[in-house]
């Protein structure tokens, strides 16, 4: 096995240059999703009480929206309704966590590949089996990820529940419709 020898020439080739771009893209992927914070607001007008209030539900990574309850400031009761008992609908944490985890793995893979390309160029180019081993390992990860996705997104994992009701914490439909 040869020792580490710094050679930045592979970064000028498509193989190394694309790995640098993938590395940067993976940083943006897990940073933007992992650090995301948002909110949704509802403007409520109470004709009997002659008041307008804004009710806010804040959410962020990992996007468990069913845990984001509405908050009315400074009161909890607006139009004689306690808004803390209402939450957003949906739990998207599985997809978000998979996305961030995959981005972290891509980040680590790109660092390892760049170290191999830049530091051990001669080992990589002289050994015919190493690129095939790396390609086989990545192919295995790809197939495993596809199988996991099929399992999680079909009825094999759990029966789909497309309708949500008021008892699950969603906002009830307006009466009289």
UniProtKB/TrEMBL annotation:
Provide the protein's localization.
Membrane
According to its record, how does it sit in the membrane? Multi-pass membrane protein
Give the residue range of the signal peptide: none
Q: Where are the transmembrane segments?
A: 96-118, 130-151
What GO cellular component is one of the record's annotations?
A: synaptic vesicle membrane
> Pfam families from the xrefs?
MARVEL
Q: Which keywords accompany this UniProt record? A: Glycoprotein, Membrane, Transmembrane, Transmembrane helix
Protein name from the UniProt record: Synaptophysin-like protein 1 isoform X2
Q: Which organism is it from?
A: Ursus maritimus (Polar bear)
């Amino acid at each position: 096995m040869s020792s580490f020898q710094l050679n930045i020439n592979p970064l000028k080739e498509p193989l190394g240059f694309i790995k640098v771009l993938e590395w940067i893209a993976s940083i943006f992927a897990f940073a933007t999703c992992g650090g995301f914070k948002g909110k949704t607001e509802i403007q409520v007008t109470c004709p009997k009480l002659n008041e307008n209030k804004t009710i806010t539900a804040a959410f962020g990574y990992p996007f468990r929206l069913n845990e984001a309850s509405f908050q009315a400031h400074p009161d909890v009761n607006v139009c004689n309704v306690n808004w803390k008992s209402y939450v957003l609908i949906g739990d998207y944490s599985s997809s978000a966590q998979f996305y961030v985890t995959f981005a972290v793995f891509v980040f680590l893979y790109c660092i390892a590949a760049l170290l191999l390309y830049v530091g051990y160029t001669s080992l990589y180019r002289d050994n015919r089996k190493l690129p095939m081993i790396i390609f086989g390992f990545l192919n295995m990860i790809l197939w495993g990820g596809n199988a996991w996705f099929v399992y999680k997104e079909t009825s094999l994992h759990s029966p789909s529940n497309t309708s949500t009701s008021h008892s699950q914490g969603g906002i009830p439909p307006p009466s009289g419709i």
